[in-house]
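Q: Here's a chain of 200 amino acids. Please give me its 3D structure as tokens.
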Amino acid sequence: MNPIRLQDSDALLVIDMQYDFLPGGSLGVPEGDQVLAPVNEALARFAALGLPVYASRDWHPENHVSFAERGGPWPPHCVAETRGAAFSDELALPADTVIISKADSADADAYSAFNGTALADHLRQHGVSRVFVCGLATDYCVLNTALDARSEGFETVILPEAMRAVNVQPQDGERAIAQMREAGVTTATLAELGEVAAAA
């Protein structure tokens, strides 16, 4: 194990931990609920050090282009202001978490938290040079967010134990991780980030 020293230029990106992506939701990711505990561990670690946290969410209009009724690949999900679009009550987001709403235009989809948002500018303005990415789903929004983070020039680390894949095709998640690594994304375990503060 190679411990990672978290520093002031680090930020945690928590991707789409919303009810519709959890088991029982309209687009539930298999075992997506198993991500909550490790994501919360990462959140506690960053919060204990006073490091910034960003949480992305799909925030769709009712007629979003990704929905099957408009020819998209998915059932309606994460419609703005609905229960399905809400973050899980079990997600322990710090009070100062920056919320990034994406795919909030009817005619444009966005898997990446950087697509159509001010995330990259916000990170740069706050001196962030390295981002740690976790959440749902490995083969879609995590994948695209991590790839865009790299293309925006950020050092990018994913936390595989705090991610799960849709796996429309078997091993899509594994292929996504391989694709991220090929783009220069590195992986880390929660253990490598150090122990969570006891009070967290």
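Q: Can you summarize the key feature?
A: Residues 79 and 184 are 33 Å apart (CA to CA).
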